[in-house]
């Protein structure tokens, strides 16, 4: 018996894991008389023939169906193929486990269980196995990113520009409390060199700020987006600038600013107006702490230029004290909500007399702040349809409806329902209530019956 | 009949039946929610000649204590968006000029609502024509809508179905006037906020200015409803010592006049002494003297003589008032000591 076991062990040791390897015929022959004939399922089907699938490795096979040559691409071929479709067919496969559910002692099962020798045998087929494998393969390739919450989204979908990436990393014990960094631009840049060839990197342009007049911007480059973002964020934290914010919500005065071909006209707005401007300017304002402003960009809208022009303008703002001192006149605010009560914003140390004012002096505050520049305001023409006769007809028809909404609200408040002056006497004199769908169906059924 | 250029349309059988419209609320009104009994300027004595007296007006104005920042405080004007403020460069003279203009506007804004006697009900039958009996099932209202007549002088008469021709009562007059000559922000029916259940809620939220402003737009000053609403509001303010809310508004004068008229100035006097406004306290006593024809020694505005006299003779809250006067005296003494101490330290005394 001992010799018998030894033989089996020896024979199993000779077995290689490679499925392609065939068992030595000698072993086969030797084992046949000794093993019970009814349970022999030992030999694998051989693959003697060479064909397309066993000649090439999986990588080459996949490449063949998921790529297209450069020339082909130019002709518009291979638009639907993608490297995403490549599947690793080896995943989920275990050596020794296959379609035929066979127990292989020493490979998929122990050789001796208790005092018994485990015998090689065929178990009934597992119908679940195929299904599990195909499921696993289906899941491969379509990796979905977790959906961003609307608060986390940037300017467009899941793209980085406009998204917030947190405060710059602390340096030693100095932390950037209350800071937030927002991405303004993320783009691919290339560098060409004789020896290295074309090198691809990502360039990120970010702005960081504490929402209270402290902000800085910087670019960072890296092969991976994560490193580029980190670099840019930390560099921005090192380049902070103080920005003056009027009453914690807007700019001190209207101003014009330019960087390269980008020209921006910025104007102050009252509370509740919001940020009506280019999205890059809006993002900068959010980070700086400006809440109300109108800005019009003229010329190039290159994001880096827009940002630089805007920040340049913000830094060049003059406080009201400076302006009053420069002009040697009181600066007074007149506001409708205050009943146009003159509120002195700033006074000079010595004020000029009325007769000291020059006849050609710029005394308009906005003109003064824009350096004599005049913003071109286009005339707004009435829409084309107002000239049509149909518009007049429409207006005539609308005339009798013009107060319906107010009457409706008033009646609801007064009587709790819409009614007419006859309703009290004739309760049916009420507007018909819109029927619910379920009621309608019920009625129809009744009529059919 | 040529005066009646316009005939008022026939009123249907169901015009403005308040009871029919608000059955629930009328029941609710039976339970008095506020513990205040409204006091009107009744027929016994007319407050108007006293109130419009320039001396009284100036006293009321000094009691109002005009603070331009509060007069021109930020108001919600109901606009969709705030207007962009304008900025101007000004010399000293120009600034003074604009401030003067603003002061003039403040005077207009602070013009006090009139205080008059409550109106007498109208019940005058012009003629009875039994021949016209049964001519129509509803009454006819005739309104003179010719141009240039005051609302109070407008001729409005009613022909009853039984042929009686009589002058319209106040409710009909108000309705007709508002119908033909609508005043802005005045509604045809009294808004519910003046019903006691809603009014008490508003007052508990200290919306005094809103209530008083709205009452001014809705009612004529001799309307009993106006006097009811203002009286309850004034009493609420007096009980809760919320005088500061009405300061620098046009309603402070009528409030002070109301409290003085009904001899209820103790709370206001106490507040004035506690906040060390002795001149205002003396003004108040001058007003009290004028209305009730008493004489207090209030010639010197900073002296406490008149006040102590009042406390002795007429005050109802003697204890707290005396304590307040004592506290004021202590404060004054300490202040003087400090002043002297400073002067000694500077080597001046």
How would you explain this protein's 3D organization?
- The complex is a heterodimer of chains A (449) and B (349).
- Chain A has 449 residues and is α+β, with helices and mostly antiparallel strands.
- Chain A has helices at residues 2-14, 25-34, 52-55, 58-66, 70-74, 127-139, 225-237, 279-288, 303-315, 320-327, 365-369, 389-399, 404-415, 437-448, and strands at 102-103, 112-113, 116-117, 121-122, 180-193, 197-209, 214-222, 241-242, 255-259, 262-268, 275-276, 293-299, 330-334, 343-346.
- Chain A has a four-stranded antiparallel sheet. A four-stranded mixed sheet of chain A has the order 9-10-12-11.
- In chain A, strand 11, helix 8 (279-288) and strand 12 (293-299) form a beta-alpha-beta unit.
- The longest helix of chain A has 13 residues, at 2-14.
- Chain A is extended and about 125 Å long.
- The N and C termini of chain A lie far apart (89 Å).
- The model of chain A is unreliable at 15-32 and 35-40 (pLDDT under 50).
- Chain B has helices spanning 18-21, 23-30, 48-51, 54-64, 68-71, 92-109, 170-180, 196-204, 208-218, 224-240, 243-246, 252-261, 266-274, 278-292, 305-313, 318-345, and strands at residues 6-7, 86-90, 125-128, 140-143, 156-159, 164-167.
- The longest helix of chain B is centred in the last third of the chain and has 28 residues, at 318-345.
- The N and C termini of chain B lie far apart (88 Å).
- The model of chain B is unreliable at 1-32 (pLDDT under 50).
- Chain B has 349 residues and is of the alpha+beta class.
- Chains A and B meet through strand 13 and helix 11 of A and strand 2 and helix 6 of B.
- Strand 13 (330-334) of chain A pairs antiparallel with strand 2 (86-90) of chain B.
- Chain B: GO terms for molecular function: structural constituent of ribosome.
- Chain B: This is 28S ribosomal protein S22, mitochondrial.
- Chain B: One of its GO terms (cellular component) is mitochondrial small ribosomal subunit.
């Amino acid at each position: 018996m001992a010799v018998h076991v030894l033989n089996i062990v020896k024979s199993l040791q000779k077995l290689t894991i490679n499925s392609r390897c065939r068992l030595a015929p000698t072993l086969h022959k030797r084992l046949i008389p000794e093993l019970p004939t009814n349970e022999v399922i030992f030999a694998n089907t051989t693959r003697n023939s060479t064909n397309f699938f066993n000649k090439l490795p999986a990588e080459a096979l996949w490449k063949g169906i998921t790529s297209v040559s450069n020339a082909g691409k130019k002709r518009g071929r291979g638009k639907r193929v993608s490297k995403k479709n490549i599947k690793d067919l080896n995943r989920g496969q275990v050596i020794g486990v296959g379609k035929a559910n066979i127990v292989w002692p020493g490979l998929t099962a122990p050789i001796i269980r208790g005092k018994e020798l485990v015998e090689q045998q065929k178990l009934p087929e597992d119908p679940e196995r195929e299904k599990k494998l195909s499921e696993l393969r289906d899941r491969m390739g379509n990796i979905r990113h977790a959906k961003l919450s609307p608060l986390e989204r940037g300017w467009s979908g899941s793209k980085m520009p406009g998204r917030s990436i947190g405060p710059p990393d602390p340096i030693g014990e100095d932390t950037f409390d209350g800071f937030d960094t927002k991405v303004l631009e993320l783009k691919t840049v290339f560098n060409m060199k004789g020896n290295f060839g074309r090198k691809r990197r990502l360039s990120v342009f970010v702005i960081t700020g504490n929402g209270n007049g402290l902000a800085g911007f910087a670019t960072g480059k890296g092969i991976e987006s994560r490193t580029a973002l980190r670099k840019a964020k930390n560099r921005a934290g090192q380049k902070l600038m103080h920005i003056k914010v009027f009453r914690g919500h807007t700019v001190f005065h209207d101003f014009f600013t330019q960087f390269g071909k980008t020209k921006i006209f910025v104007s102050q707005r009252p509370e509740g107006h919001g940020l009506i401007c280019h999205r890059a300017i809006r993002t900068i304002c959010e980070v700086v702490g400006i809440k109300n402003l109108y800005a019009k960009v003229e010329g190039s809208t290159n994001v880096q230029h827009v940002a630089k022009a805007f920040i340049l303008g913000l830094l060049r703002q003059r406080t009201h004290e400076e302006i009053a001192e420069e002009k040697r006149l009181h600066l007074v605010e007149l506001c409708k909500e205050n009943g146009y009560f003159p509120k002195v914003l700033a006074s000079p140390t010595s004020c000029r007399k009325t007769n000291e004012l020059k006849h050609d002096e710029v005394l308009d505050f906005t003109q003064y702040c824009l350096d004599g520049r005049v913003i071109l305001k286009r005339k707004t023409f009435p829409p084309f349809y107002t000239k049509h006769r149909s518009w007049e007809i429409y207006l005539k028809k609308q005339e009798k409806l013009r107060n319906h909404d107010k009457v409706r609200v008033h009646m609801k408040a007064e009587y709790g329902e819409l009614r007419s002056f006859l309703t009290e006497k004739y309760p049916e004199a009420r507007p018909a209530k819109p029927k619910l769908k379920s009621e309608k169906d019920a009625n129809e059924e009744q009529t059919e019956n | 009949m040529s005066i009646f250029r316009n005939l008022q349309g026939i009123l249907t059988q169901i015009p403005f039946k308040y009871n029919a419209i608000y059955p629930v609320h009328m029941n609710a009104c039976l339970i008095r929610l506020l513990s205040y009994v409204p006091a009107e300027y009744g027929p016994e004595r007319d407050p108007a000649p006293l109130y419009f007296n320039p001396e009284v007006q100036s006293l009321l104005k000094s009691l109002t204590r005009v603070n331009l920042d509060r007069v021109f405080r930020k108001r919600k004007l109901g606009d969709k968006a705030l207007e962009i403020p304008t900025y101007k460069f000004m010399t000293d003279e120009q600034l003074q000029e604009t401030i003067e203009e603003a002061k003039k506007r403040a005077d207009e804004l602070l013009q006090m609502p009139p205080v008059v006697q409550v109106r007498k009900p109208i019940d005058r039958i012009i003629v009875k024509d039994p021949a016209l009996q049964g001519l129509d099932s509803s009454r006819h209202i005739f309104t003179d809508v010719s141009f240039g007549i005051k609302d109070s002088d407008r001729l409005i008469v009613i022909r009853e179905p039984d042929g009686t021709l009589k002058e319209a009562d106040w409710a009909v007059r108000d309705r007709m006037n508002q119908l033909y000559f609508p005043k802005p922000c005045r509604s045809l029916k009294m808004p519910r906020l003046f019903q006691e259940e809603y009014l008490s809620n508003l007052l508990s939220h200290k919306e005094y200015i809103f209530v008083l402003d709205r009452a001014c737009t809705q009612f004529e000053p001799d309307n009993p409803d106006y006097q009811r609403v203002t009286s309850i509001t004034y009493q609420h303010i007096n009980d809760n010592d919320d005088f500061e809310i009405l300061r620098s508004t046009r309603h402070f004068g009528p409030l002070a006049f109301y409290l003085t008229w009904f001899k209820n100035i103790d709370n206001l006097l106490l507040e004035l002494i506690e906040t060390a406004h002795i001149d205002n306290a003396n003004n108040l006593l001058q007003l009290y003297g004028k209305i009730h024809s008493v004489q207090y020694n209030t010639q010197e505005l900073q002296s406490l003589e008149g006040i102590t006299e009042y406390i002795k003779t007429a005050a109802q809250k003697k204890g707290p008032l005396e304590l307040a006067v004592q506290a004021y005296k202590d404060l004054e003494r300490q202040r003087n000591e400090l002043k002297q101490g400073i002067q000694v330290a500077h080597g001046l005394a």
